[in-house]
Structures are given as C-alpha cells and as structure tokens.
C-alpha cells in the first residue's frame, strides 16, 4: 500500500515538473511548443536550480571570496584564450572556463578540482567511489538544458548540501578519483535526454534475481575395446524422424513468436524522439590509462549513476572540452557521429587544443609534480590509516577494511611512497624558478574535502534514496536508519508504469533475528526468507505462503544442527524431513497424515517412511534402504538395498498383531507375522528368536519415530510464533566494535577511564614510606629521640643488607646445584656413550648457568646502587633529624 | 585357585552341553513367546558361556564359526586348543584354569580381550598375530621374567594389562619397569597410570629402552626388506620370469654339475666362463624385461575386459531393475482401486495382473538372453586376444631359449677344445705343477675328458629345457584356468542365478492374487 502512495506522489511531481518545463521552453523558443516532456519517471528529488545568491559571504573562507593575484593572472590568460578561441572558431559554442563560484567570484574550472583521498577503503576504487557519489548526492537538472550553468560551486559545498548538477557531480567525483591515483578528467559535452535527466527507467534492473542453473551432466568416457554390442532397438526410424520434424516445426514457431514479442517490447521501450537531441549539455568523467596500472583503456564514468560507459557509448553525443586540475583541452575532432571515433591522446595538438602549452621538459616535470602530489596524498592517507591502525577504537565501522589494507601494504608501499616523495620534492624547487617562463596553475582555492564517518555511513541524502529502472523500483536505505533494519528494497513490476507488483525483495542488516533477505512473490503470494547463520534454531531459509492449504519449506544449516536436519517440507497432510550426514545414514523421513475435516491439535498418522543412505560397512542385502511404518495397516515394510548383481531388492514385511498395545496380552511369535521376498540366497537367515526381537525393536522404533514427528510439529509451531514475535520486536544488533552505537561499551569505556584516573591519583598520593614499619614497631610515637633514630637507621640498613645477602645466596645455591647436575649428567653420558642428547643438554645447562651468573652480577650492582640511595634518603629524611618529629 | 585335578570328574564338551549353553542365553520367559528352533544353528551363535563345568579339553567348538565371545573360565583346561576355526572371536576368557603354555591362538587375529588370569603360565609367547589385542589379563600366573614384559611391546593397541600376582610383580622395580617398557598401556593392574611416574620411569630406563628401540627398528627394517623381496618374487612369478633377473639360471646350470665344475679348472676356462656368463646373463635379462612387460600388457588387457564386462552387466541389471520398479508401481496402482479387505481381487483385475506378470517375465528373460549373447561374444574375443598374447610370449621366449642353447653349444665346444689342449699338454707333461690333483685323473686320456664334457653339456641342456618347459606349462595353465573360471562364473553361474531370481520374483508377485 505504501508503495502505491509513493508512486502516486512521484507521478504528481512529474506532472507538475513537466508543466514548468513546457513553460520555460515556450519562453525560449516558439518552435519547441510541440515538444512534450519525456514520459518518464524522474527521481523526485530533482529540482530546477536557482541562480546562487550567496547570503552569508563571511562564512566562507577567504579563498572563496577573493581571487589571489596568481588566480587573477590565470583568469586574464583564460579570458585571452577564450577570445582567441571565439575569434578563430566562430561557429563553435562557448567553453566552460571560468564560472562563478558560490560566492559570485569567477574561478577557473581547473582550480576548482581539489584532488583528495579520504580514509575510507571504499573510496580508493573508481567504481565504488562513483557509486558513492551517485548515492550521496541528489541530482539537479541544468536549466535550461542547452546552456552551460553560470555557476560552479566548490566540491565542499556540494558535499555539505548533498545536491548538485552534472558539473558538480563530475567535479566532486574527479577530485576523489585523481586523489585515488586515477588519470581522471572532467568532460563537458552533450548527451542524450535520458542521460541528462538521469533517467534509468529504460535500463534493465541491475539487481536481477539469480536463476538457478541446472548442472551440466558429464558424459563419461570409457574404453570400448571389449564393449558389448548394444541391444537391438525395435523401433521405426521413420517414426522417430517424423516426430523430430514435428518437434522442429513447433520449436520454430515458438522462436518466431518470441522474436515478434521481443520486437514489440523493443518498440514500446524505445524513447520518444527528442527535439533537443544533440544540444543537451552534460558533464561526465573520463578515465585514461596511465594513472593506475589496472586501467588499460580509456572509458567514461557517468557520475550521476556511477556506471562505467565505454569510450564509444552512443549516449554521449559530443565533447567540447576536457580538463583536470592541471590543464584544459578543447576537442578539435569532429563529433557529428557522437563520441565513437574520438582519440584521447591529449598531447596530439591537431586533435586537442590545450590551454597551457608546456615544453616537453616542463611536461615531464609536471607529471613528476603530479606524481609527487598524489604521493603526498597517499602519505597523508597512510598517516591517517596509521592513526586508525594504532587506535582502532576511533575507526569508523565502515572502514575496518581500510586498516587491514593499510596493514598489508603499509610496509611495502610506504617506503616506496616516501622514497618517491622525498626524491621528487627536489625538482619542485626548480619548477618555481622557471615559473616566469611558463604559466603555472595556482593551487586549488577549494578547502580540503572531508566526509565524517557518520555521513559516510548515512551515504544517501536523508539516509535514503530511490532509483527507478525498467519495471523496477529500487529503494536504498542507510544501515540503522530504519527500525526494521532494511537497507535495500527492490520492487519489480509487470508494467512500465510501475503499478502491478510482481516481486519484492527486501534486504536487511543488523537484525537480531538474522533475517537477511525477504523475497515476496506477489503473484504467487509466497514469501521466501533467508537468514544468516547464528540463529538458535539454525534456520537458513524459510519459504511459506498464505492460505488454508499451506505449503512451508524450512531449510536449515544442517552442520550446526544436532539432528543434521537440512530441509523440512510441510503441507496439510504431509511432513517430510531431509537429512544430510546423519549418524544413522538417515536421509529422509516422510509422514503422511490423515486428512481431517475437523481441526484438532494432533493429526493422526497414516504412515512414516524413512530412507537411509548406503552404509558401506554392511552387505547390500543387510542394509536397509527404506523402512515404512504403516501405522494404520499395522505393518512394517523393510526394503533392503539392491545387490549390484540383482535386479530386485529384498523385502521383509512384519505384521504387527492387532492387539499389541494391550498390556495384558502376551505377544507370542508365530510364523504368520513375517513375510519375506529374497532376491538371492545371500540374505541372512534369521532365527525365530531374532525375528521376534526384531519386531519388538521395530515397535519401539515406531514409537520413537512418532515422538520425533510430534516434536517436529511442535518445532514448526514454535517457529511460527517466534517469527511473529521477532517481527514485532524491531531492535537492531550493534556490533561490539561499533563504539558510536554500542551504549554498553560506551559506558564501560567511561568506567574504565574513571578507574584508571583514580588509580593514577591514588598512586600519586602515597609514595613509599620505608620508615613506616619501623616506627609502627615501636608503637607509632609522636616523636623519638636521637638514640631511637639511630637504632631505626641501623635496623633499616641491617634489614636491607640481610635481604640482599639472602637473595645473593639463593642465586649462588641455584648456580651450584646447576653445576653439580651438569657434572653428574656429563659423567653419566660419558659412561653410557650417548652423544646426541648430551650436546643439547650441555648447551641448555650452559645457558642456564650464564643466566644465573648474569643475574648475580646484576643483583650486586643493584644492591650497591640501592644501598647508596637508601643511605642518601635516610640522611635526608627530616624525621631522623634534630626535632625527631615522626608524625 | 584352580581346582584340584583329582577331586572332580572331568566333563566332555558334548552336544547337550552346548545346546544347554546356547539356550541359557535366552531371556527369562522367552521360551513362552518364541517357539524353539528345531535344530541348533551353530553359525548364528555369537557368544557362548561354558564356565564352572569342569571341562578338561577344549573340543567340539569348531562349528561356531561366527562366535565373537567365548567364556570358558573356571574349568580344568590344561591346553589351549581347538580354536582355529573361531576366527571372529574378539573376547576370550580362559581364567581360572590349569593352562601352562600360551599356544593355539595364532588364527584369532580379531581378538581384543584375552584373559588368562589364574593359570600356570611362565612365559608370554606365541601371540604375535594378535595385533588388535587391547586388554590382556595374565595376573596370578608364574611369570617371572623381564623378557615377557618386553614381549608385550609389540602390541600397539594394548591399553590394559594385569600382571598382579606373578612372581615378577613382587619385585621392587616391577611397576617402574613395566610402565617404562610398555608406553602404549594406559592401565596397569586396572589402575590408571599417571604422567609423572611414567616420566620418571622413562628417565630411569632411558638407555635400555633406547637400545630396545634400535634393535626393534632394525628388526622391522629387516622384516620389511624380506617382505618387499617376497612381493617382488611373487610379481616375477606371475610374469613367469622368476629367478631370471640376475645370474641365477647360469649358476643353477653348474650347481648340480660336479664334472663340469672340475672342467672349469682347466687353464683358460675362467676367462671363457666369464665371457659366456656375460652373454648368457644379458640374454636372460632381456627375457626377464620382456616377461615383465608382457605381464603389464596382459594385466591391462584383463582390466579392460573386466571394466567392460562389469559395465555391460551393470547396465543390464539397471534396466531390469527399472522394469521391475515400473511393474511394482503399476501393481500398487492396480490394487489401489480394489477394496482388498472386503471382497478381494475381482476376476477382471486378476486376469489383467496375470497377463502383466507374464509380460514382465518375458521382458526380463529377453534382457537376460541378450546379456548372455553379449557376454559370450565378448568373452570369446577376450579369450582369442589373450591366447594370442600368450603364444606371442611363448614364441619370443622360445627364440631366446634357442639363443641360450647356442651359447651353451659354443661354450661346450670351447671347453672341449681347451680340455683337449690340456690333455695333449698333460701327455707331454708340460702342465704346471699347480694343476689340481683331484682332476688330474680326468685328464688321463681323451675319452674320459670328452665323456665328462658330454655329461656336463647334457646337464646344462636339461636345465635349460626344464626351465623352458616349466615356464610354458605354467603360462598355458594360467590361461586355461582363468578362461575356464570366466566361463564358469560369468556365463553359467551368473545366468543360473539371474534365472532363479526372475522365477522367484514372478512367484512372489503371483502369490498376491493367489492368496486372495
């Protein structure tokens, strides 16, 4: 229900938006009156941007509000370039060179890029970074779509506002990608309406459900030397041929119908023609090989969606210019065929007109400098990671991988990076000296970019975001943002207007009940839930439906269950358990219940069938394959395994006497109770006595089996009620490493801190007082006389000496013992002529002796030092001086 | 203590006694509910108690082939005997008897518990085959010997030993000696051995045990080598080239040839012998290699054959099983409609079922006949191929034997020449004094020496013939037995079994309608 509402509101929004669109277009061009806005669904957060009116200039740093001298120099240079360009290429559109920033100051686009690396492992790879940017921002359309924007905000502002147009997206993403070491450029050009509107409704759903693949059967090869002749087949070849022909025609017809259907679908899905085709302005990212070694060819990244696009993608219709933080190049190649034949060798002056011409030497130095810059970034990152590594409690949860990355690579990379960095910092100076010859770009005016861990984890603006794809709606939520722990909801629809639900998939995280995925098949009205390991009942999957004749399947983690249950399937009159690696070779137990008209708690059982795996230690004729407790018929039917040389399996049937349950009845054996079919003579002959005990055993087993069935039924009922409870209680689990959320650990940490503080204080308070025991020995008098003071002094020194001597003696005696033992052992070994152990033992003994010697020496030195200290202290102690006031 | 011999009349293990013993195993009141069997089934008995019966001789037990537990304590047994057929025995109690020697246990390889408590045993011996021995009780005996304790070292699975009441156990260092020498046991005299005393004891006897271990290792090494050699020999024997890997055949030629050995003392003979031996051994060695290679190809052929035959059999069996399963399915469906309890089978259904049964029988029989045809053909091909291989082997070997004979002829000629020369020189008295006395008379005249050469040559030739005949007769024997066995097992026995099974199945299924 909720989803439908959302849909409605989006529809309305689209409608209102389209009205605005039409009006604006009317103003601009009369011809566009017949243009209709695309009948597509646009993300509801898209708003037409108003020209920036900066209200509080003072809040921005100085570099935002003013241009430095160097920047002004650059701007004049750029202006010069623009004029020349305009003069030479009059028919070309104007370039995106120096838009205003959020403070209304013109800034050169190259200086707006701020290469940054952030301490999140997710932001070191281009695909993850692009996805993050696409998720993190809301998209604003360009207004009008065929004109360059007047302003280009700083990436810092985009990060805080969390929305922007395609240039803002590209700018922010390019800053991060260059920081991550890619050779990335912002591209200004033209794209189709779908790209410009961020309209993904024609793209297939990226979260396609996996279809179960059927395992391919392998044909076994074998030696055929003595292969027997195949049996004669007595069927008509003509019939088979005709049958095959018939099948073929059916198949062909099917293919034909399928093709027609495909054509029809393609017709529906084709976008309507766009009057502004080819003039819609867009900005995106180009990655060239060279930055990181894994990039082997140039490709685009669409910043609004985070998708990779090939360099000849038909959605991009032309390129005006590309730039990075160092230079800007204007495309001189023909774009009438879109971007299909463009070359990206930016040094080729015939194809790319660059803004700053560098001599070859300069170019080299520049690349060197660029390298050193990224290196310095990397060093920053390493420093940060080092901090996190050493203080793991400060680490944001999402970033645990990063430290491990750091840990793995730190030693290797760091030394390299440092080496390169310090090496490259030398030519930096030479660049400065040559600055007056070539124009050098000033540093970026943008403040360092930063994303707080909290914001990084929130990921989406206001913690959630909705995407539309072909017949699919994807809703994404940040972890912990919703009470039920939902992070991803994928709704699949039957129609293009997204009204007929067919399948909804929910992904959850951090739930107490370990629910991970819930799939709701709306057409069939069945629900499939998947759980992570760790539940008390070891549930792995739970498939159920609604309705009077229910059909439930429970799949368990069989390795953690004591009864090795792997799957349980229940319907109204059947209950089937499947086991894997059961101790008794049991694989299967099926219960058939009587169909009851009235509802009662216990369904009566018609039969229980147990199947067993082959027990390799038994003969096939003694190994039970199937055991049926036909409870209603009072029978036990045992089917043994078929011997490899036999065509039938042996069957033994026991008939339970009808009054077996009567306690007064003495159960007597007679031969009618037993019936056997023997496949061959190998079956063990059983005496009457054995048979009698066998039937008694089977009766007991039957009771046991019934008991198990009842517990299974109870377990199912328990599961249902527990699931209901779990659905109601919607607390989320918090990892013990997550210090932001884990209240308990917070409290505990504070307590710990308090305790350590207290301990510290206490330690500072009482310093060791060695006079105390001696004064206490004479009854803690207020003051003493000189004689007693002398006495105390003497006692202290004596005790200290005794203690030292005692310790020295102890070490000495140990030493002597060791020597004695060594000698006896050596003698013994010599007598017995064993040399191997001798050496080793001798080595060890020597080692011990060495240690003891060292200890003795150390003790001597320490004692001397300590004695001196003691004497000094005693001499300085005021209590042993003239007034002799002890307290 | 064992009872006195004279005081009691010894009893004999009789049919009645055994019957009683078996029946006494039954639970109380069981006779009421389970009728007695008509005949005593010896092989069905798993455990037997024959205690307190004054039995003197262990006899008449050989029928209990599946016995796992036998109690014969508190008798007056003097010798352990008659247990050879009870190979599944795991538990044997012979305590409180008058046994003096351990013997007759060699075949009881499964034995884990053995009690010989309170007997008159002085020596631990004759138990080497009891590899699985776990509990051994030898208390209250006359064991007074360190070697007996050492003897127990060879039982790797031994965990519990009782030695109490022996003269040896009253010695002061009995405990430490035992736990040091038997590191595998956990319980001595039914008491758990702690770690600390064990370590102490090990330290005390460290050197002796070290020596013991080295000798044991050496013995083991020796055994292993002998075993390997035996296996190798077996392999050679299966390739029909045993004793041909070195110069055994050559030495064998001269072994029984006393005359020839004398002839070899002729000057110049040793060079000749060395020369001939080299050639001879080279030929024999090629034969040996060839034999091994042939065996390999034969084995491969046989493996291929069995793989294919088994596959064909499995496939056929599987098909038949599918047919039977389908029929059973059909049967349940057919009878599900009928109300069996009330009216029984209606005649229409019975007739249909009967037809279906006949059909089933025909189908199964057709399959079986097809298989018989298939197998017959394959077996014939196999027989032919193998026969070719054997004849190939034989021919090649025969050619080599021919070479050997030629070599022998050459050798004979040369030695005759040497001898004749020697005789001539002897005649001229040119021979050295070193010429050995014992053969001087051989060289007295030409005829004698030629006769001697003749006999020697004959002996050598007969040796070669003997070896050749043996090889050929054995390989042809091997071939015929194997082929006969295949015919017997795969064609006749298998077919008979299958036919019996089919008819049994049909009877069983037909009984369904006949009952009703």
Question: How are the secondary structure elements laid out?
Answer:
The complex is a heterodimer of chains A (887) and B (516).
Chain A (H helix, E strand, L loop, with lengths): L1 H27 L33 H4 L3 H20 L20 H4 L13 H11 L1 E2 L15 H7 L1 E2 L1 H14 L3 E9 L1 H4 L40 H33 L11 E8 L10 E4 L4 E4 L5 E8 L4 E4 L20 E3 L5 H31 L9 H34 L19 H6 L5 E6 L2 E6 L8 E8 L7 E8 L6 E7 L4 E6 L7 E7 L5 E6 L8 E7 L2 E6 L6 E8 L11 E8 L11 E7 L4 E6 L10 E5 L18 E4 L10 H41 L14 H23 L6 H6 L8 H47 L3 H41 L11
Parallel strand pairs in A: 1-2
Antiparallel strand pairs in A: 3-4, 3-7, 4-5, 5-6, 7-8, 8-9, 10-11, 11-12, 12-13, 13-14, 14-15, 15-16, 16-17, 17-18, 18-19, 19-20, 20-21, 21-22, 22-23, 23-24, 24-25
Chain B lengths: L14 H9 L6 H4 L13 E3 L19 E3 L19 E3 L19 E3 L19 E3 L8 H6 L8 E3 L11 H8 L5 E2 L2 E2 L2 H10 L1 H33 L9 H8 L2 H6 L5 H69 L9 H81 L18 H70 L1
Parallel strand pairs in B: 1-2, 2-3, 3-4, 4-5, 5-6, 6-7
Antiparallel strand pairs in B: 7-8
Explain what the structure shows:
The complex is a heterodimer of chains A (887) and B (516). Chain A is an alpha+beta fold. Among the domains of chain A are: 62-206 and 274-358, Roll (C8orf32 fold), CATH 3.10.620; 599-733, no CATH class; 768-880. Chain A is 40% helix and 17% strand. A 16-stranded antiparallel β-sheet of chain A has the order 10-11-12-13-14-15-16-17-18-19-20-21-22-23-24-25, with helices on one face. In chain A, a hairpin with a 4-residue loop joins strand 5 (299-302) and strand 6 (307-310). In chain A, helix 10 runs antiparallel to helix 11 and helix 16 (786-832) packs antiparallel against helix 17. Residues 1-53, 395-403 and 417-437 of chain A have low confidence and may be disordered. With 516 residues, chain B is mostly helical. An eight-stranded mixed β-sheet of chain B has the order 1-2-3-4-5-6-7-8. In chain B, helix 9 (269-337) packs antiparallel against helix 10 (347-427) and helix 10 runs antiparallel to helix 11. The model of chain B has no long low-confidence stretch (mean pLDDT 85). The A-B interface holds A 222-229, 231-232, 642, 644-648, 666-670, 677-680, 685, 687-690, 692, 832, 834 and B 26, 30, 32-35, 37, 41, 44, 207, 210, 304-305, 307-309, 311-314, 317, 320-321, 323-324, 364, 370, 374-375, 377-378, 381-382, 494, 497-498, 500-502, 504-505, 508.
């Amino acid at each position: 229900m909720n989803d439908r509402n959302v849909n409605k509101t989006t529809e309305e929004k689209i409608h209102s938006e389209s009205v605005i669109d039409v009006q604006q277009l009317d103003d601009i061009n009369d011809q566009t009156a017949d243009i209709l806005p695309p009948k597509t669904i646009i993300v509801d957060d898209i708003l037409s941007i108003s020209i920036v009116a900066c209200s509080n200039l003072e809040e921005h740093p100085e570099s935002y509000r003013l241009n430095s001298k160097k920047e002004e120099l650059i701007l004049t240079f750029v202006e010069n370039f623009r004029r020349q360009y305009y003069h030479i290429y009059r028919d070309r559109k104007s370039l995106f060179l120096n838009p205003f920033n959020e403070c209304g100051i013109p800034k050169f686009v190259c200086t707006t890029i701020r290469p940054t690396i952030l301490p999140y492992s997710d932001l070191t790879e281009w695909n993850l970074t692009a996805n993050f940017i696409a998720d993190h921002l809301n998209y604003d359309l360009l207004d009008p779509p065929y004109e360059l924007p007047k302003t280009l905000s700083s990436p810092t502002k985009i990060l805080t506002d969390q929305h922007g147009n395609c240039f803002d997206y590209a700018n922010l993403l390019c800053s991060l990608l260059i920081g991550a070491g890619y050779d990335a450029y912002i591209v200004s050009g033209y794209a189709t309406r779908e790209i410009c509107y961020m309209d993904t409704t024609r793209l297939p759903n990226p979260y396609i459900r996996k279809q179960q693949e059927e395992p391919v059967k392998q044909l076994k090869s074998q030696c055929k030397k003595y292969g027997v002749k195949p049996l004669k087949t007595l069927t008509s070849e003509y019939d088979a041929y005709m049958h095959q022909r018939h099948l073929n025609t059916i198949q062909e017809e099917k293919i034909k119908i399928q093709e027609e259907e495909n054509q029809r679908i393609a017709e529906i899905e084709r976008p309507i023609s766009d009057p502004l085709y080819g003039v819609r302005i867009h900005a995106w990212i180009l990655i060239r090989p060279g930055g990181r070694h894994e990039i082997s060819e140039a490709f685009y990244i669409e910043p609004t969606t985070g998708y990779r696009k090939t360099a000849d993608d038909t959605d991009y219709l032309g390129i005006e210019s590309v730039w990075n933080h160092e230079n800007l190049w204007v495309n001189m190649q023909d774009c009438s065929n879109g971007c299909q034949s463009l070359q990206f060798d930016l040094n080729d002056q015939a194809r790319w007109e660059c803004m700053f011409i560098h001599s070859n030497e300069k170019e080299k130095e520049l690349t060197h400098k660029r390298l050193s810059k990224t290196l310095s970034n990397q060093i920053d990152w390493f420093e940060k990671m080092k901090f996190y590594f050493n203080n793991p409690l400060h680490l944001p949860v999402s970033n645990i991988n990063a430290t491990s990355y750091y840990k793995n690579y730190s030693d290797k990379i760091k030394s390299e990076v440092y080496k390169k960095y310090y090496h490259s910092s030398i030519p930096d100076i030479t660049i400065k000296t040559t600055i007056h010859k070539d124009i050098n770009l000033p540093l970026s005016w943008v403040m360092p970019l930063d994303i707080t861990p909290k914001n990084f984890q929130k990921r989406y603006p206001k913690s959630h975001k909705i995407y539309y794809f072909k017949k699919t709606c994807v809703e994404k939520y940040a972890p912990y943002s919703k009470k039920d722990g939902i992070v991803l909801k994928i709704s699949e629809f039957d129609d293009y207007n997204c009204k007929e639900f067919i399948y909804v998939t929910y992904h959850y995280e951090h739930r107490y009940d370990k629910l991970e995925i819930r799939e709701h098949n709306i057409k069939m009205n069945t629900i499939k839930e998947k759980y992570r390991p760790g539940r008390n009942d070891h549930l792995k999957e739970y498939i159920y439906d609604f309705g009077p004749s229910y059909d439930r399947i429970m799949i368990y983690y069989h390795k953690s269950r004591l009864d090795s249950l792997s799957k349980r399937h229940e319907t109204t009159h059947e209950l089937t358990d499947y086991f894997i690696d059961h101790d008794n070779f049991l694989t299967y137990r099926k219960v058939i219940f009587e169909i009851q008209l009235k509802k009662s708690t216990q369904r009566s059982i018609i039969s229980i069938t147990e199947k067993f795996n082959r027990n390799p230690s038994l003969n096939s004729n003694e190994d039970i394959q199937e055991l049926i407790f036909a409870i209603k018929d009072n029978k036990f039917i045992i089917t043994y395994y078929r011997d490899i040389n036999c065509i039938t399996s042996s069957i033994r049937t026991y008939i339970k006497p009808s009054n077996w349950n009567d306690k007064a009845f003495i159960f007597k054996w007679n031969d009618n109770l037993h019936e056997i079919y023997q496949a061959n003579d190998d079956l063990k002959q059983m005496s009457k006595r054995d048979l009698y005990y066998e039937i008694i055993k089977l009766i007991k087993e039957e009771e046991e089996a019934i008991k198990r069935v009842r517990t299974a039924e109870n377990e199912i009922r328990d599961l249902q009620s527990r699931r209901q409870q779990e659905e109601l209680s919607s607390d989320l689990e918090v990892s013990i490493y997550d210090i932001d959320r884990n209240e308990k650990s917070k409290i505990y940490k504070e307590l710990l801190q308090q305790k350590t503080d207290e301990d510290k204080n206490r330690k500072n308070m009482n310093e060791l007082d060695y006079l105390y025991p001696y004064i206490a020995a004479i009854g803690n008098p207020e003051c003493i006389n000189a004689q007693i003071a002398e006495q105390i002094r003497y006692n202290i020194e004596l005790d200290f000496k005794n203690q030292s001597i005692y310790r020295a003696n102890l070490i000495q005696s140990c030493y002597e013992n060791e020597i004695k033992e060594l000698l006896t052992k050596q003698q013994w070994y010599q007598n017995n002529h064993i040399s191997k152990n001798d050496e080793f033992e001798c080595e060890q003994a020597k080692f011990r002796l060495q240690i003891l010697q060292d200890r003795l020496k150390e003790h001597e030195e320490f004692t001397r030092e300590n004695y001196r200290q003691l004497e000094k202290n005693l001499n300085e102690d005021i209590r042993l001086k003239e007034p002799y006031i002890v307290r | 203590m064992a009872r006195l011999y004279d005081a009691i009349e010894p009893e004999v293990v009789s049919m009645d006694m055994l019957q009683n013993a078996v029946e006494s195993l039954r639970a109380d009141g069981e006779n009421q509910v389970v009728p007695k069997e008509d005949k005593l089934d010896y092989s069905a008995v798993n455990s037997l108690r024959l205690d307190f019966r004054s039995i003197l001789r262990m006899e008449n037990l050989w029928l209990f082939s599946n016995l796992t537990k036998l109690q014969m304590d508190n008798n007056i047994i003097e010798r352990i005997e008659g247990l050879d057929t009870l190979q599944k025995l795991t538990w044997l109690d012979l305590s409180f008897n008058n046994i003096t020697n351990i013997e007759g246990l060699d075949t009881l390889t499964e034995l884990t518990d053995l009690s010989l408590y309170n007997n008159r045993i002085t020596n631990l011996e004759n138990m080497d085959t009891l590899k699985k021995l776990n509990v051994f009780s030898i208390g209250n005996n006359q064991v007074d010997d360190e070697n007996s304790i050492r003897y127990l070292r060879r039982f790797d699975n031994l965990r519990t030993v009782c030695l109490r009441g022996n003269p040896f156990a009253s010695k002061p260092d009995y405990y430490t000696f035992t736990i040091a020498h038997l590191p595998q046991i956990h319980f001595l005299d039914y008491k758990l051995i702690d770690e600390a005393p064990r370590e102490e004891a090990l330290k005390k006897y460290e050197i002796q045990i070290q020596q013991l271990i080295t000798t044991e290792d050496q013995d083991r090494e020796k055994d292993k080598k002998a075993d390997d050699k035996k296996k190798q020999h077996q392999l050679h024997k299966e390739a029909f080239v045993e004793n041909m890997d070195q110069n055994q055949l050559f030495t064998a030629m001269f072994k029984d040839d006393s005359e020839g050995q004398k002839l070899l003392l002729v000057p110049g003979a040793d060079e000749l012998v060395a020369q001939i031996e080299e050639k001879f051994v080279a030929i024999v060695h090629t034969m040996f290699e060839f034999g091994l290679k042939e065996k390999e190809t034969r084995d491969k052929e046989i493996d291929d054959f069995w793989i294919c035959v088994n596959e064909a059999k499995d496939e056929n069996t599987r098909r038949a099983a599918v047919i039977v399963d389908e029929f059973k399915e059909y049967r349940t469906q057919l009878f599900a409609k009928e109300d069996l309890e009330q009216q029984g089978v209606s005649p229409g259904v019975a007739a249909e079922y009967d037809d279906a049964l006949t059909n089933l029988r025909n189908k199964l029989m057709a399959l079986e006949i097809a298989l018989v045809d298939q197998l017959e053909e394959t077996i014939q091909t196999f027989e032919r191929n193998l026969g070719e291989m054997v004849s190939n082997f034989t021919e090649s070997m025969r050619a080599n034997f021919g070479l050997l004979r030629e070599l022998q002829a050459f050798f004979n000629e040369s030695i005759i020449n040497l001898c004749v020369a020697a005789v001539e020189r002897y005649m001229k008295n040119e021979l050295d004094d070193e010429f050995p006395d014992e053969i001087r008379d051989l060289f007295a005249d030409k005829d004698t020496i030629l006769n001697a050469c003749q006999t020697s040559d004959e002996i050598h030739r007969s040796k070669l013939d003997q070896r050749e005949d043996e090889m050929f007769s054995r390989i042809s024997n091997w071939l015929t037995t194997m082929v006969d066995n295949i015919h017997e097992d795969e064609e006749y026995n298998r077919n008979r079994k299958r036919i019996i099974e089919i008819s049994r199945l049909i009877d069983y299924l037909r009984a369904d309608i006949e009952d009703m």
